[in-house]
Structure formats: structure tokens, C-alpha cells
Task: inverse folding
């Protein structure tokens, strides 16, 4: 089992550009989570999906952020336009159930300059 | 690769007693360690942390101990309360690259 796969591992982009982060959850996991990690706030839940349906996006900071899960094996987190304050590590996690059993991906380190 | 391991998936403790959650790591580059607590239907929330230059950090009922030579840290909760029932994630960080353990579900029985 390759685990939760995120790409890219690192992303450096200029302010104003569109950024798309990708995630492949573990097969059979019905829940997919996007987290943002910063040293100031620690780990923040942005959005999560259950069976490809967005359930709670209250953590999405603003309209510049959007996430999709077109099928059970793929999800994207898009930022358009990106801003320097979006610089953080973004984690995707999947789980067979809610509350525990999380498997996190290795994260995408985003730097917006 | 599991660089941070929480080998106990669950722990059950009686109210008022001590809860001890353990965590092991393999990467000696980790220099900052955190514990996150997660309730169902909520994202993990930061609980307590410790820098590698320390071996103990205390915050109210929560204390984190770090043993660098053994690459081991633990979270002590004294006294345990039913509201502490949650999943606890250990995390280790090096240069803002954070790795998490799989979590330990703590149940505090009244």
C-alpha cells in the first residue's frame, strides 16, 4: 500500500498565479481531508469529503480556495489567485471512518513569492 | 515510511487516573514535537508541544516528556477527565516538515 499520495512535494509560485494541489487517497477510504499546517496555527482542517461529497468546508479560508473530488481516487485543492500568506504545508489525509484511522500524505510545501 | 509511530491504537483509563500516551520517532532531525487532539467530526487541534532542547513541558493537566536518546516522547494527562476522550496525534517536525503518528484513541471512563 503506497499510502496517501500528494503531489507536488514542493511548489513555488508567484503571487497571483493559480496553484493546484493533488491527492490520491488510500483505496477504500471513504473520507478525505485537506489540512493546512503553519507554525502559527498548527494544523487546520480546510475541508473534508465523504464518498466524494464535500461535507464541511467551513475551514476554507476564503473564496480563493476550492477543492474537488471528482472520483474516489483523486482530489484537488486549488488556490486562485495565490497570495504570500497562503504559504504553508498542505496535508491530505484519508480514513476509512471519521474520527480516527487517519493516514496523512507527506504534504505539499507551498511557497508563494 | 512511518517516521513517527504511535503503537497503541487505543487506551482506556478511569476518570481521575493518569493517562499516558506514547510516541516513538526514527528521524533524529526532528527538533519540534507536538500533540494534537481530535474529537469526532472535528479537525485535530493543537494540544501541547516541546522543543528538542527541552525534556519536559507542562500545561495544566498535560505534560509532555521527551527522551531524545530513546527517540521517545509521551503525553501525560493528570487527572484524566471524560472530556479528554478523543484521538491524540503525535507529530514531529523538522524545518516545517511535519510527520504524524497514526493516533491513539483515549477513552476516559466515568
Result:
Amino acid at each position: 500500500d503506497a499510502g496517501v499520495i500528494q503531489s507536488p512535494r514542493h511548489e513555488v509560485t508567484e503571487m497571483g498565479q493559480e496553484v493546484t494541489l493533488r491527492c490520491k487517497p488510500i483505496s477504500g477510504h471513504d473520507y478525505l481531508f485537506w489540512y493546512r499546517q503553519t507554525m502559527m496555527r498548527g494544523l487546520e482542517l480546510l475541508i473534508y469529503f465523504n464518498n466524494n461529497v464535500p461535507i464541511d468546508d467551513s475551514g476554507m479560508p476564503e473564496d480563493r480556495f476550492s477543492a474537488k473530488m471528482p472520483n474516489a481516487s483523486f482530489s484537488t485543492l486549488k488556490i486562485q489567485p495565490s497570495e504570500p500568506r497562503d504559504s504553508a504545508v498542505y496535508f491530505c489525509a484519508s480514513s476509512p471512518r471519521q474520527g480516527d484511522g487517519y493516514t496523512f500524505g507527506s504534504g505539499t510545501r507551498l511557497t508563494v513569492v | 515510511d512511518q517516521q513517527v509511530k504511535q503503537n497503541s491504537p487505543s487506551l482506556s483509563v478511569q476518570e481521575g487516573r493518569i493517562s499516558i500516551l506514547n510516541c516513538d520517532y526514527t528521524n533524529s532531525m526532528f527538533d519540534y514535537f507536538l500533540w494534537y487532539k481530535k474529537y469526532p467530526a472535528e479537525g485535530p487541534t493543537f494540544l501541547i508541544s516541546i522543543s528538542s532542547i527541552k525534556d519536559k513541558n507542562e500545561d495544566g493537566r498535560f505534560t509532555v516528556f521527551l527522551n531524545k536518546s530513546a527517540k521517545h516522547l509521551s503525553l501525560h494527562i493528570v487527572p484524566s477527565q471524560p472530556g479528554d476522550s478523543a484521538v491524540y496525534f503525535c507529530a514531529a517536525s523538522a524545518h516545517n516538515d511535519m510527520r504524524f503518528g497514526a493516533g491513539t484513541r483515549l477513552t476516559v471512563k466515568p
In short: The radius of gyration of chain A is 13 Å. The mean pLDDT of chain A is 87. Residues 93 and 104 of chain A are 4 Å apart (CA to CA).
